Automatic annotation (TrEMBL):
Keywords recorded for this protein, A-Z: Metal-binding, Nucleus, Zinc, Zinc-finger
Gene Ontology molecular function, alphabetical: zinc ion binding
Protein name: Transposase
Residues of the signal peptide: none
Record-linked PANTHER family: ZINC FINGER BED DOMAIN-CONTAINING PROTEIN 39 (PTHR46481:SF10), ZINC FINGER BED DOMAIN-CONTAINING PROTEIN 4 (PTHR46481)
Source organism per UniProt: Adineta steineri
Xref: InterPro entries: RNaseH-like_sf (IPR012337), ZnF_BED_domain_contain (IPR052035)
Places the protein is found: Nucleus
Principal localisation: nucleus
Length: 151
C-alpha cells in the first residue's frame, strides 16, 4: 500500500519530469475485463534534453460511463488539464475505433504555433500500429482458417 508521503513524492517526480518536457506524445486506450468492468489508460512518451526516452503512466482508472466520444474526450481532457500538460501534447495515439477518432476531433487544438501552420485534426491523432497490425493478422488467420475448412 502506498503511503501518502510516497504518493506525494511520486507525484512530484512525475510533475518535474512533465514540467521539463516541451513536447509530449500520449496514448489512450479503453478496454473491458472479463468481469465487464471498463478501464481507461493514458501513457506519455517523450525525450528529455539528454535524449533519454521516458514512458510514463499518467492515468489508469475505471471508466464507469459508456465509451462515447464525448466521455473519452472529457476524461482525457480532465486528466491532461490536472497535470497541466494539455498544451504540450503534440500527438495522440489511439486505436481506430470510431469513438476514439471522434473523441480526439473534439479534443485536439488545430493551431500549431511551433511551425506557424494550420493542421488538420487527423494529423495530430495517429492510429496505434499494434492495433493495426493485430487487425491485419486476425484477417489473415481467418482467411487461412476458412480456406482450410472449405477443402
Amino acid at each position: 500500500m502506498i503511503t501518502i508521503i510516497a504518493k506525494y513524492n511520486q507525484d512530484m517526480k512525475l510533475k518535474k519530469l512533465l514540467d521539463n518536457a516541451n513536447y509530449l506524445s500520449i496514448t489512450v486506450d479503453l478496454w473491458t475485463d472479463r468481469r465487464m468492468r471498463a478501464f481507461s489508460g493514458v501513457t506519455d512518451y517523450f525525450l528529455d534534453f539528454d535524449c533519454v526516452l521516458h514512458a510514463l503512466l499518467l492515468d489508469f482508472l475505471q471508466f464507469k460511463s459508456p465509451h462515447t466520444e464525448e466521455n473519452i474526450c472529457n476524461t482525457t481532457r480532465k486528466n491532461l488539464d490536472n497535470l497541466k500538460i494539455k498544451d504540450k501534447v503534440q500527438w495522440i495515439i489511439a486505436d481506430n475505433a470510431s469513438n476514439m477518432i471522434k473523441a480526439f476531433k473534439f479534443y485536439l487544438n488545430v493551431n500549431d504555433d511551433t511551425y506557424d501552420t494550420q493542421h488538420d485534426n487527423s494529423e495530430k491523432r495517429l492510429p496505434c500500429f499494434a492495433h493495426c497490425l493485430q487487425l491485419v493478422i486476425q484477417d489473415r488467420v481467418e482467411d487461412v482458417s476458412y480456406n482450410l475448412s472449405s477443402k
